[in-house]
Write a structure and sequence with these properties.
248 residues; four-stranded mixed beta sheet
């Protein structure tokens, strides 16, 4: 889930209107905003990551995928397993932050590095740690291990996408979040994640969250939620069934 904030008074100023027009004129086409990259190399598919089995691999995972990463406390192993599916991010600077924020998870380039080349930027993945009521299921700490890998993988799918974006392209994505374009943007992110071999993990995440929030388990499995922005378990399953990476 990638979210951005634009100052409330920005569009009310002459300069703000001019800048907005310039940005809109310099953006690429809407289809480019949601285009998904092909994985850098074939990625193996794991039906389920089991914490006790993966814990013994932690040191080797950290050596191979932990470079330039500030891992989130309590979710280090899950993050490394998700990173394993994104070879492009091996040396990318990514800071994972766990804090009381308004969105369960979000990802974006750090504002101070926006003008740098994509490979030299610092990217953020922010994880919420406080939420009340039935929405507690959205908190990473309350989800099963395999599902945690899946939703972290969703945020890293955003990061991979940003590697191909210029400064103005990222601003275009920010504006996209304010319109129905966000629906295509998030669904393309899920599709990209599936292409990178994390479909089962995202399937388990979608199934867990929807079953906890919805009163009707059957509807939760098939119905599109969040305005259709995020794929349902049934949609994820249909894509995997026709995907050569998941043929086994």
């Amino acid at each position: 889930m990638a979210r951005y904030e634009i100052p409330a008074n920005h569009s009310n100023t002459c300069l703000g209107k001019i800048l907005t027009c310039i940005l809109l004129l310099t953006l690429v086409s809407p289809m480019d905003v949601i285009a998904a990259q092909e994985p850098a190399s074939p990625i193996g598919v794991i039906r389920e990551y089991v914490e006790l089995e993966e814990r013994k691999n932690y040191s080797s995972l950290l050596r191979e995928f932990g470079n330039n990463k500030r891992l989130p406390k309590g979710f280090e192993l899950q993050t490394l397993l998700a990173l394993k599916h994104y070879p492009e991010l091996r040396n990318t600077r990514i800071n994972f932050i766990v804090d009381d924020v308004s969105i369960p998870l979000s990802s974006r380039p750090h504002w101070s590095s926006m003008l740098r080349s994509a490979k030299n930027r610092t990217y953020l993945v922010i994880i919420d740690n406080e939420r009340e009521g039935s929405r507690e299921a959205l908190l990473l700490k309350n989800q099963p291990f395999n599902a945690q890998v899946g939703i972290i993988g969703h945020e890293l799918s955003h990061t991979v996408y940003y590697l191909e974006r210029s400064f103005f392209g990222i601003v275009g994505n920010a504006l996209c979040q304010l319109t129905d374009c966000r629906i295509k943007f998030e669904r393309a992110t899920d599709r990209r994640l599936i292409d990178y071999g994390l479909g089962w993990q995202r399937f388990d995440h979608a199934t867990f969250v929807r079953s906890r929030i919805s009163q009707d388990r059957a509807s939760a499995f098939t119905a599109e939620g969040g305005g259709g922005a995020y794929m349902s378990p049934a949609e994820i399953m249909r894509i995997m069934e026709g995907h050569e990476v998941y043929s086994d």
